[in-house]
Amino acid sequence: MAWHASVLTLFPEMFPGPLGFSLAGKALREGRWRLEATDIRAFATDRHRSVDDAPFGGGAGMVMRPDVVDAAVGAALAGGDPARPLIYLTPRGVLLDQAMVRDLAAGPGCILLCGRYEGVDQRVIEARGMREVSIGDYVLSGGEPAALVLLDACVRLLPGVMGLAASAEEESHAAGLLEYPHYTRPAEWQGRRVPEVLLSGHHAEVARWRRAEAERITRERRPDLWARYEAARRQRPDASPADAARGGPGAGITRLPRAAGAA
Ligand code: 9D3
């Protein structure tokens, strides 16, 4: 069976959205994965089709009703492999990372619940054993863009979506560093020259320059990744950092041992 994503949302028209284009869109049309967006409002029971209500304890905003959300989740579970993980996208969730993406992509698919308003009644989250996931420390207006991000990250890892060349190259970059900068023709553009070493044809020097640039950029921009990279290098001083960090592609980076204290 193809990898199966079910999205529960008040805005089903947002899907497939950007996932209908490029690699993900082609793979969707080829049947390499399947996407359904279900309108949570279809599970409302009262004549006003209400999906939310005021928060107990007072305060601003509205909360999505547990009975309506539970009915939508039940329908999604019945419409596919019931072993698919259930994920509630919420700013208070655990941070999405490439390890989670890799695990999800390796499974049967997922059921994604997108919140609107202040969020979903906590009891249905607990009753259904949902995993709460955030895509980063910034505030979105709803869970839908987060669902699109999570799905994009998973779908590109499915067999046959990216092609062998791209995935092999990604594996070989297994160093735990941000990428070095890229250049193409012309060799001079608006008075800016491409770094001379890249025109030299000296493959070993090109490789050394790229490694040095990747390290510099990582040190400057991502002290967190840099610390892990250096720790991995200290652990196996005679191995190449790529060997020390082996395990698969990261988030434009590559995979490293978990930082101390990480989940
Ligand atoms: C005023 C308190 N807000 C929490 C920071 C309430 C709130 C803001 C935004 C509740 C929900 C949202 C909508 N965001 C998401 O649904 C969401 C999200 C996000 O905002 N950032 C990062 N990841 C995610 S996943 C879902």
Automatic annotation (TrEMBL):
Assembly, per entry: Homodimer.
GO biological process, one term: tRNA N1-guanine methylation
Catalytic activity as recorded in UniProt: guanosine(37) in tRNA + S-adenosyl-L-methionine = N(1)-methylguanosine(37) in tRNA + S-adenosyl-L-homocysteine + H(+)
Source species of the chain: Caldovatus sediminis
Chief location category: cytoplasm
GO cellular component: cytosol
Job description of the protein: Specifically methylates guanosine-37 in various tRNAs.
Binding site for S-adenosyl-L-methionine: G115, I135, G136, D137, Y138, V139, L140
Organism domain of life: Bacteria
UniProt-annotated stretches for the region Disordered: 232-263
This protein's name: tRNA (guanine-N(1)-)-methyltransferase
Subcellular location: Cytoplasm
HAMAP family assigned to the protein according to its UniProt record, in alphabetical order: TrmD
Keywords assigned: Cytoplasm, Methyltransferase, S-adenosyl-L-methionine, Transferase, tRNA processing
Family: Belongs to the RNA methyltransferase TrmD family.
NCBIfam families found in the cross-reference section: PRK00026.1 (NF000648), trmD (TIGR00088)
GO MF term list: tRNA (guanine(37)-N1)-methyltransferase activity
EC number, as in UniProt: 2.1.1.228
